[in-house]
Amino acid sequence: MQSALARFLSEYGMILVLLLLCAFFSVVTTSDQSPTGGAAAREVVTAIQQHFGPNPRVLIVASDLPSDTTFVASVARDLAATGATILATIKGEPKAARAALQKIAADGGKLDAIACTQVTGAWLVFSDLKTDFPSLGEPRVLTPRSYRWPNFLKSANLLNIANQIAVIAIVAIGMTMVIITGGIDLSVGSLLALSAVLVAGLIRDFAGGVNASLGGMLLACLAAIILCGIVGAFSGFMVTQFAIPPFIVTLAMMLVGSGLAYILAQGQSIYQIPDSFVWLGRGADLFSLPNAVALMLLLYGLAHVLMSRMKLGRYLYAVGGNAEAARLSGVPVNRVLMFAYIASALLAGLGGVIMASQLKSGSATYGTMYELYVIAAVVVGGTSLRGGEGKMLGTLTGAFTIAVIQNGMNLTNVESYTQKVVLGAVILGAVLVDRLRHPR
Amino acid sequence: MTRAAPLLEMRGIVKSFPGVQALRGVDLRLHTGEVLALLGENGAGKSTLIKVLGGAYRADAGTIAIDGHATPLHSPPLSRAAGVAVIYQEFNLVPGLTAVENIFLGQEVTRAGFITQKRERARAAALFQRLGVEINLDAPCRLLTTAHQQLVEIAKALACDARIIVMDEPSAALTSHEVAQLFEIIRDLQRQGMGIIYISHRLDEVFTIADRVTILRDGQNVGESPRAQINRHQIIERMVGRELKDEFPPRHVQIGAPRLEVSGLRRGHSVRDVSFTVRRGEILALTGLVGAGRTETVRLIFGADPREAGEIRIDGRICALRSPQAAIAAGIGLLTEDRKLQGLVLGHSVRENFGLPNLTWLARRGFVRLRQERTHFARSINQLKIKVPHQEERAGHLSGGNQQKVVLAKWLARDCDILIFDEPTRGIDVGAKYEIYLLMNELVAAGKAIIMISSELPEVLGMADRILVLHEGRVTGEFSDARTTSQEQIMALAVA
Q1: Do domains B8-240 and B258-494 have the same CATH topology?
Q2: Domain B8-240 in this protein, CATH class
Q3: What is the mean pLDDT of residues B408-434?
Q4: pLDDT over 80 (residue A169)
Q5: Hey, is A74 helix, strand or coil?
Q6: Domain boundaries, chain B
Q7: ∠A236-A240-A244 over CA atoms, to 5°?
Q8: At CB < 8 Å, which residues of chain A contact B?
Q9: CB contact under 8 A, B345 and A318
Q10: Residue B367: its chain A contacts at CB < 8 A?
């Protein structure tokens, strides 16, 4: 049991680092939170019931912000269910609230409670009701209570982190495979841009632009991804057939891919895309999990199974560990390498499609420097650049570590230049810690 | 009789690694002008001991004295400064640098920060003159022969005024002519008052060169004796700790029909027109000097290198065999000469290494059947008596003999019909050798055909049914009955 824990820690120690980072940013970003929507409504309704029994006369006051709609609707519904009399419902400005109070006073009505959000509860109108509207009785202003909770740990923020890193994390799956074979793929950032331009351009020019059908969009996505795959196949071909170092081949393809993207986009951003195209990048259909994040998790699951349970995964490790020994053991080394480069390119293509969907446009400027962030995620995740070792789930941890640091620094208002310095230090630190834990 | 303090005295050296106690209080003495043979099975602690001496490892306990003065050797530079030079089996040369650059690496002859090449070159030339050899001083070391690289290492030791030179398996990759030359140099160094620790598995050499032998077993001294007072048999007995009846187990196998026939194999200068046949139940030895084209020949058969000409038939049928994959599918297995570079993925577990050539049948629909893999490997571990703490142990952590057994296990599990053993017992201790010989006998008894490449003539004569001698890529002779052949006859053809 203890050794199992030790092994887990030594293999997935980065998870611990990630959790510590999360804990740190949670502490640092803890602040007063005001409940909104349904939660706020429930609190106010409970308070009204406690103070005024079954039949209070209530005024509901909320701002006209869309976020308050749920609040108003929930309070009205829940109060009506308990038998309260809702004299008026205000959605708007203090002026409207004053008018409503005056109207109730003019009608000779009494008022028990005013249900407010935290913002509306602080309006000056309600500061001295006794003198302003003596005829109303003694109405009490009820607001939801605030509580302390880290901004970092709000579910919206966590989902935001996941969504922000989804593209890099997906591309990092392919990069992990390539690095495990002892290679490197510098072309992924450019392929991402190429794919985004391709998918946007194909939709604009062939699928009917903003009126494109679902089928047309799917075909465009598929075509963009497959074209990227062909570039990857070319890189793999150069690496396997001519023994050109992967660094050189993919450096060249990085330039070629980026250039092609600029040529195809003619230096512009392509935005003639239907609104429904953002489904992949911005939608959240599964338990409010963003679709890109769901896709990322699915791909990591598949990649983990591939690397840990399948013959192909074993071959990828073997080729990286000792290519000659692998070849002499009957491993089809060239085919395995081809697979790694094609997979990396296909995933970069998919990343480009997701990015185009998130930003609802395609531009050749996407993905700049992404190859380096992707490599950083892989390396922070514990994969050795010498090949032969590494874990898919480590890469996911690495990607999240980078995302959490960036997000945490945004929340604590660290400026972006400083962020780069910190990120660089963290990447180096993570690899250093790994090296110290596994001395050679 | 009082004697001057020994040149080197190591006392009670203890060194342990996680899970292993490599040295349990080893003593070692070396006098000036003496050649001491350090003997022991693989894993006995010889390598650890010399790494302690070379400063690569720091002993947990024990003292080291040079000329009677306690001298801590905590790092390679300290050790070098104390006059100790260790020549490891894998040389410490930078392949891209010349002999001169390598010799003075870290101790460059400089003037005002600039290297004075002329003086370095002159000093290097003088060193080689002292050794009585001539080598190309300006070629990158990777282009030199193994023997010459070794001479560069020796020159390097002399250049830093070493008085104690440790040689770890110096003859492993040398031809017998080169070994003779090395011995002359060792005797020369001996006359100049140096102490030499000589590690070798070849007992013949030990009897030729050593003045005294020290034997280790399981990290302890089990014998120390002047060479004249101990014989081969006694040494082997102490190394393995048991009586060894016969170095080569007997075999009675009916040899059957031809299994593998190759004709006209050709590739560049290394293999020129090689033809032979191996039959079921037969061990065919390919012998000759290093560089005779033996390994190159079997690599062509295995599809590891492309052949320029030649035909390969298995059970009478022509096979293309353009890749190792195809050769393996056709039932051929190759146990490479170099386990570390070609046989194993050292950073991976022994189980994964075992599985590598076997995934074609261990996997179903692309998924590795892990339970099957573990069961089969556990069986191999038992059968071959592989010493591993568990199946997840890294292959790089094993001793040479156990590594070879893992390589064996992976090929045996494939049930190949034709097995090629390239130097199967190189760098392996006597006990493990015997086990491997037994296993080869079992394999041929089961109707397999074996091609064995070996430089050790006693092994060739003891194990082979038929012997093929190669020289410069050609077959220069064949002995159809090993029992009636002498080492001299073979050597005559090998150097022809």
Answers
A1: yes
A2: alpha beta
A3: 87
A4: yes
A5: helix
A6: 8-240, 258-494
A7: 90
A8: 309-312, 314-315, 317-318, 321-322, 324-332, 388-389
A9: yes
A10: 309-311
Contact between B84 and B54 under an 8 Å Cβ cutoff? The reply is yes
Instruction: Note the pLDDT of residue B357.
Output: 92
From chain B, pick out residues whose CB is under 8 angstroms from the CB of A309. 367-368, 370
- On the question of pLDDT at A44 being above 70, the answer is yes
**What's the gap in Å between the CA of A24 and the closest CA on chain B?**
35
pLDDT attached to residue A7: 67
Best of A180, A329, A389 to disrupt the B interface (most B CBs within 10 Å) is: A329
User: For position B246, what pLDDT does the model report?
Assistant: 61
> What angle in degrees, to the nearest 10, is found between the helix axes of B146-159 and B117-131?
110
- Taking contacts as CB-CB distances below 8 angstroms, the residues of chain B near A328 are 302, 304, 324, 334, 336, 342-343
What is the average per-residue pLDDT within A309-317?
A: 94
Dist. CA A98–CA B290, nearest whole Å: 104
CATH class of B258-494: alpha beta
Beta carbons of A322 and A388 less than 8 angstroms apart: yes
Helix (H) or strand (E) holding B40: strand B35-40
Hey, are the CB atoms on B356 and A332 less than 8 Å from each other?
A: no
Does B374 or A56 have the greater pLDDT score?
A: B374
Residue B342 is which amino acid? Q
Q: Which residues in B84-219 belong to E strands, given as ranges? A: 84-87, 110-111, 114-115, 164-168, 195-199, 212-217
Chain A CB contacts of B346 under 8 Å are 321-322
Domains and CATH numbers, chain A: 37-149 (3.40.50.2300), 155-437 (1.10.3470)
| CB-based contact A367:A352 (threshold 8 Å) | yes
Q: What is the pLDDT of residues B8-55, one digit of tens each?
A: 999 999 998 765 678 999 999 999 999 999 988 766 788 889 999 988
For A322, the closest of B328, B345, B366 (CB atoms) is B345
- Residue B219's pLDDT band (boundaries 50, 70, 90)? confident
